[in-house]
């Protein structure tokens, strides 16, 4: 069956390729994605089947005869003889009634068939496999410690290790949602299109992958179209088509949307980071949950959507790839990487590629900027001049102690970069390559570079050049080693100092603006 997408801003309706069996429609709140899906469903007529766990569990009242819903099926079943009860008040309860009605009808038919076998009117009676059998098996696969029991014409539930049973009323919203989806999808029309609104609702992210894979496998004849703004859910549907709704023009009744391209050198995860935001994107290093980068940068660069990517290489590559696709998404992107041991030439190259590089070695050094230390001290009622003098003295002392090892690390980095540049050239033959490398060892002169760096670093110590020390000193133990937390009147752990900075930045005060200004200056942005 061909599916036409809703009209775009030009009024054209494009076909959805048959190869896209499952489609996730994603967009910001208010972008028009639900209206987009509803338009598709309405245009499909009897082939559309709509599911929403939120409405099913909480929309109490009389059933609505909306085509393509379980309520419509319930009303139709009420018109024929059967075993439906009158007490179902929500779509979820009415679905359970439909399943039980079919179960009881099938058992009665089986009993009649057995009587025919006994009377010789037929040879065999098969035990029926009902939709309820499929639902129970699928539900217990998702919740292996739970059991569904048939008792007295109704469903009862129990948990392993507990003797008591309970009705569906005591199920959690997540358990009800799984039960509802497994049951409802079995009533979808053959070769139909199942529309699921807010599929992430009530479900823990840990079960998304397995649950929706099982759900789709129950109806391989159907196509599934999900409408969501949840990134955890969308990340589990990697094989789906992914359609981004950016906006809706009510006057022209058209949508600004596109199907996201695959294999363009940038991952779906990164695309999804910008869905729901019209702000430029800032890719950063570190883990999204635990790194200092992820805690600090969203509070400093508030005009950006900040996305953690892990390694510096991934930040650099993603920024490049994202900007290469600017014609698709219309958003700018930037990256932030630590300076580490990069020289001025490397830093200038990265900044030319939209990568912010600070004037300090790494993220911990940003927290030790003079204005940051002074602000935290003042916020806690300490003499900021006295606190900073002590911190400065400690860090310069630490750097003096580590001077030769730091010079060695910088030497290794620069020699490695120089060798890479020399080896990466193009050569017509091996003889030319050998001639090119013949004087490499003498040109590299690692000892000369090392001694030069030692002299530079010794000059920073002698002149107490705190800013230059922060620029070249990679030392994760800087925060605890400088005793900055205690000096600022905080507890002894480095986390208390970091938390104090984050707390200040969350407020709009003179202190927060002072820290933001110091950090943005460190990136050469103010």
Key terms:
single chain; 526 residues; alpha/beta; 6-stranded mixed β-sheet; 4-stranded parallel β-sheet; 25 helices; 51% helix
Overview in brief:
This protein has 526 residues and is α/β, with parallel strands linked by helices. It has 25 helices and 14 strands. Helix 10 (292-300) packs parallel to helix 24 (494-505) and helix 17 (403-423) packs across helix 20 (446-462).
Euclidean distance between termini CA atoms:
58 Å
Rounded average pLDDT: 87
Which geometry do the CA atoms define?
Answer: elongated
Strand runs, count: 14
Q: Largest sheet, order of strands side by side?
A: 4-7-8-3-9-10
- Please summarize the sheet with the most strands: 6 strands, mixed
Tell me the helix content: 40-55%
Query: What class, by secondary structure content?
Result: alpha/beta
Uncertain regions: pLDDT < 50 for 5+ in a row?
Answer: none
* Computed Rg: 32 Å
Sheet-strand content, in percent, reads 5-15%
Number of helices: 25
């Amino acid at each position: 069956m061909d599916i036409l997408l809703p009209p775009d801003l030009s009024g054209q309706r494009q076909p959805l390729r048959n190869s896209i069996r499952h489609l996730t429609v994603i967009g910001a709140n208010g972008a028009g994605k639900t209206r987009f899906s509803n338009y598709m469903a309405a245009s499909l007529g009897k082939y559309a089947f709509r599911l929403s766990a939120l409405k099913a569990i909480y929309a109490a009242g009389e059933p609505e005869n909306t085509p393509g819903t379980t309520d419509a099926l319930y009303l139709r079943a009420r018109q024929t003889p059967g075993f439906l009860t009158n007490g179902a008040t929500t779509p979820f309860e009415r679905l359970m009634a439909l399943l039980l009605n079919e179960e009881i009808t099938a058992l009665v038919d089986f009993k009649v068939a057995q009587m025919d076998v006994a009377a010789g009117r037929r040879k065999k009676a098969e035990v029926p496999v009902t939709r309820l059998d499929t639902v129970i098996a699928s539900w217990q696969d998702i919740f292996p410690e739970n059991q569904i029991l048939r008792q007295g014409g109704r469903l009862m539930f129990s948990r392993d290790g507990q003797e008591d049973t309970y009705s569906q009323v005591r199920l959690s919203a997540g358990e009800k949602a799984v039960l509802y989806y497994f049951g409802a999808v079995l009533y979808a029309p053959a070769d139909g299109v199942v529309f699921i609104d807010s599929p992430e609702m009530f479900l823990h992210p840990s079960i998304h992958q397995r649950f929706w894979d099982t759900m789709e496998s129950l109806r391989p004849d159907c196509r599934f179209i999900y409408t969501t703004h949840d990134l955890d859910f969308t990340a589990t549907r990697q094989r789906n088509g992914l359609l981004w709704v950016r906006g809706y023009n009510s006057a022209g009744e058209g949508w600004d949307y596109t199907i996201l391209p695959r294999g363009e050198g940038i991952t779906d995860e990164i695309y999804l980071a910008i869905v729901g935001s019209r702000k430029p994107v800032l890719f950063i290093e570190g883990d999204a949950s635990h790194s200092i980068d992820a805690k600090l940068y969203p509070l400093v660069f508030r005009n950006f959507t900040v996305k953690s990517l892990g390694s510096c290489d991934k930040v650099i590559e993603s920024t490049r790839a994202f900007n290469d696709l600017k014609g698709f998404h219309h958003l700018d992107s930037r990256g932030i990487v630590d300076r580490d041991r990069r020289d001025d030439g490397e830093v200038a190259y990265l900044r030319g590629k939209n990568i912010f590089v600070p004037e300090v070695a790494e993220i911990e050094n940003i927290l030790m900027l003079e204005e940051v230390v002074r602000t935290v001290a003042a916020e806690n009622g300490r003499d900021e001049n006295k606190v900073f003098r002590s911190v400065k003295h400690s860090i310069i002392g630490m750097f003096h102690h580590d001077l030769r090892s730091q010079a060695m690390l910088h030497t290794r980095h620069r020699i490695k970069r120089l060798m890479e540049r020399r080896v990466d050239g193009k050569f017509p033959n091996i003889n030319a390559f050998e001639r090119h490398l013949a004087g490499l060892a003498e040109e590299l002169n690692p000892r000369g570079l090392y001694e030069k760096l030692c002299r530079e670093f010794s000059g920073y110590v002698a002149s107490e050049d705190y800013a230059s020390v922060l620029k070249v000193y990679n030392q994760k133990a800087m925060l605890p080693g400088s005793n900055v937390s205690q000096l600022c009147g905080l507890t002894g752990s480095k986390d208390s100092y970091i938390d104090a900075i984050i707390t200040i930045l969350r407020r709009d005060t003179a202190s927060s603006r002072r820290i933001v200004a110091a950090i943005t200056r460190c990136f050469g942005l103010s």
